[in-house]
Design brief:
This protein has about 240 residues and is an alpha+beta fold. It has a single domain, classed as Lipoprotein localisation LolA/LolB/LppX (outer membrane lipoprotein receptor (LolB), chain A, Clam). Helices cover about 15% and strands about 50% of the residues. The protein contains three helices and 13 strands; from the N terminus they run ααββββββαβββββββ. It has a 13-stranded antiparallel beta sheet with strand order 6-5-4-3-2-1-13-12-11-10-9-8-7. The radius of gyration is 20 Å and the shape is globular. The chain starts with a helix and ends in a 7-residue tail after the last strand.
Length: about 240
């Protein structure tokens, strides 16, 4: 009986200790996000598809610890290079063999005439210093996926967004949903992971819905889907 009581007390104290453990700060959560992307070492083929016209642009996405490379297929070949340097994220654009850095003032330019822009690709908002945890126990979707809801505040007015809200999945550290607002606080962009796939030991994006929102009316003004395909399995 004494042993049973001792075990019960030990379990109760363990439970209290776990509940009392401090939640991660916004900066720590965003570090998890950056680490989750840096840990992926993949080369994936995919496409960007416009929902209204059905137009499709084929692409290749390469991920490694140094960053990311997004390449669109010819005839209008274009390459975007995300370079991770410590706490910095630098975005470069390469056309016809010439490379130049994408300035924040140009990051709102859409890719291939679709709602996805260069700021979305760069994920520079995960490096902004002014951040806050809006909800440490957010639930997403019908499945109630456990997330942290983090707000990132732009350091200046040069980019397309004033604030970006991120739903970060607790299990993977990846971004499950994003909503961006302009400097006046009006919703202008949202994207959400709609399908996942298993590649080796990693759970990775299969499909993401990206929507542009008219800040005046609040109505969706454009929609596209980013789809990535799992690489073919190596033959035994």
């Amino acid at each position: 009986m004494m042993l049973a009581r001792a075990l019960f007390l030990l379990l109760a104290l363990t439970s209290v200790a776990q509940e009392a453990a401090p939640a991660p700060s916004a900066g720590e959560i965003l570090a998890m996000v950056r680490q989750s992307y840096a840990a992926q070492n993949q080369r994936l083929k995919g496409s960007l598809r416009d929902s209204h016209s059905g137009r499709r642009e084929d692409l290749q996405l390469t991920l490694d610890s140094k960053g990311m490379v997004l390449e669109f297929a010819p005839p209008m070949a274009e390459k975007l290079i995300l370079e991770l340097r410590g706490n910095q994220a630098l975005l470069w654009e390469e056309r016809e063999g010439k490379r130049q850095e994408v300035a924040p003032e140009l990051s709102a330019q859409p890719l291939r005439g679709m709602p996805l822009n260069r700021e979305d690709i760069s994920l520079r908002f995960t490096h902004w210093n002014r951040t806050d945890v809006l909800d440490a126990n957010a639930k997403l979707g019908a499945a109630g996926v456990a997330c942290w809801l983090v707000r990132c505040v732009a350091p200046d007015r040069r980019g397309p967004y004033g604030t970006v809200d991120l739903w970060v999945e607790k299990q993977s550290g990846g971004i499950a949903k994003m909503q961006a607002h302009d400097v006046e606080g009006r919703l202008v962009k949202r994207f959400q992971v709609t399908k996942l796939q298993r590649i080796g030991e990693l759970s990775m994006l299969r499909e993401m819905r990206i929507e542009a929102v008219d800040p005046a009316s609040g109505k969706t003004s454009g929609r596209c889907y980013l789809t990535l395909e799992a690489p073919p399995k190596a033959e035994p």
